[in-house]
Amino acid sequence: MEFNxxxxxxxxxxFPEYKLxxxxxxxxxxxxxxxxxxxxxxxxxxxxPQQCLxxxxxxxxxxxCPKNRFVLSEDGEPGLNYLCKGYYQFFDHVAPYMDFMKKExxxxxxxxxxxxxxRERRDK
Length: 124
Ligand code: SF4
What we know:
mainly alpha; two-stranded antiparallel sheet; 6 helices; 47% helix; 10% strand; binds iron/sulfur cluster
């Protein structure tokens, strides 16, 4: 929300085409659940390059913020996030630990058991 009560889809998209309304004319709830905001949310997925759609970590990353999607994908498609390499490395690194915690949780054990598991992995 801006100083004058104008509300936008996102703080990184304060442009006329992303204006949802003004707090003096509409409630925040109306703007949040309006068609414009729904379209903004759908755009975040619909504009992903194929590299993201094929990525095993798309479910967690979602291509990150659209404002950062300005580099070419591996096959030359525009719209890849310039932070992709770092995100991919991060998700790849944490995946086994997250999987372990999920397994523990589903077995009704403490996900914090991951600490001991991580130490054992490190010391092998
Ligand atoms: S890690 Fe990279 S390829 Fe995977 S979803 Fe995120 S931005 Fe796309």
